[in-house]
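Example record used in the benchmark description.
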Amino acid sequence: MFLTAAGTVSAGTVTQTIELRPGWNAIHVEVEPEVNAIEQVFAGLPVASVWRWIPDDRPVSFIQDPDEELMTIDGWYGYFPPERPESILTNLYTIDANQPYLVRLQGSSPRTLEITGRPALRPMRWRSDGFQLTGFPVEPGNEPTFGSWFAGSDAHEGQVIFRLDDNGQWVAVTRPQVERIRSGEAYWVYTKGRSEFQGPLSVELDFGERLDFGASVARDSLVVRNRSGVSNEIRIRRLDADVPVPLALGTRDEETGETEWPVIPDETSFSLPVDESRTLRFGVRRSELFANNASQIIEISNGFGSRKLIEVSAAVFQPPSAATQSRKGASGMMAAGRATDPRFAGLWLGVATIEEVSMAQTGGVVPVPTGSEFPLRMIVHVDAGGNVVLLKEVIQMWQEGTYKPDPDNPEFNVVDEPGRYVLITDESLLPQYEGAILRDGEPVGIRMSTAAYDYEGDELELEGVFGPGGLLTGSIVLDPEHSTNPFLHRFHPDHDNLDAQFINYRQEAFEVTREMEFVFASSDPEGNESPEWGNGEVAGTFNEAISGLHRSTIFVSGSFRFRRVLNIDQLNQ
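Model output (structure tokens):
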């Protein structure tokens, strides 16, 4: 019995191959079948019955000939093919990952069972002071002995283990330092006291059964522990996939304290001393993911027979309203012969750091370094059509979902449109929505704003392309009557834009114009190349020309960095 990679693993699947002999077989299924209906898993095989033990609080009774009626023993659930008269007694309907089964094969020839599915990383749960029917994730062709597998567990070392022999009888493992665990085989193992032992190589996730980055998560981690009793050389191997996940592994430089994110090669390794653990921080580079979805299997092994398979999946954010026509039309979306990729749709928060300013008093036009940096908070939104707007304020709210009668049971309602977060710039629309968070027990919105600029209206359209290698430009004009014009003072006779009689308009404030330019870098200017770079994080050079504050135009320059905080591709909807 062994587990092999499928010929095609673009969907993150592997194929487990199990050799079945005539009569009884104790197997351990290590993958979640693509179709888990039991009659489909065993289709084409002459099985007489399939059994699964689902334990409860009662003691285990198993050291007997399986040919006896298992259905009379509490805790056993069985499946019988439809053509057998016992089929009406079937109460086992699915095959699940990381579960043991007893399979009775008819005929006189061995047969091969192949199960294609996804690995699921689930912790082993042991029955205290009792037997457990289970199998173990071992490396085919390099299987460890029972003795070496349980050497790091006081609850199992030296305890009784039974395996099913060729005659279909449960027999004790009498030479645990010699007999080897077989991949895909199940055993009865006794646990003395309580145990959380996960094998010589333990791999733990914070939550879930896979590394699922979805369309927005950039980083995730898992913990590898060495419980083998000897120093390990941990190997990480990426199994072949049609569409591989561009997975990076965070490595910290102890001297500088900085973390680098190199892409994981097909195979890499690191040393892990006895009884020590290491947290592996993974990131996905969506800028290098050239498909909407990708899934791949990574294998983690210790060289002594322990092996864990973990599915890694990632997706590229696809705006639900990408087909919506552009508000501006195609001409307003183009720059350098291309448009903003809708995959950048969402709300971006960032900072433009001013590092150089021209000497206006001498008519200088070349910015020179400042004594200190000056930050300007920036808010940008990109919609599904590639339109880019600069925002001075936006509020995150909640749109309640809608329900409709269940077609199968009209007395109950089912979700018609699920609830979702919305972004509001028009405050007159706020009464239509609920708050996004609770504050003092009341739902309130999340307000994001900046004092770095102002303009008429709620949104300021920017021209060009948002994203690595792109260029965005925009103009802010504060006319003499604008409330935030720095020269306007409503109660000062020389700066109120009124004549001496305070009746007729007379311009006394100056118009102020700010021409902004965002030049996006193709690679991270800081050289970190974090997993978010190019998809959830962008940066580049910021330039601005300010007219009206001084008789000479003031030129400033610096850098900017934006991070996507919400994958919401519409405003006020």
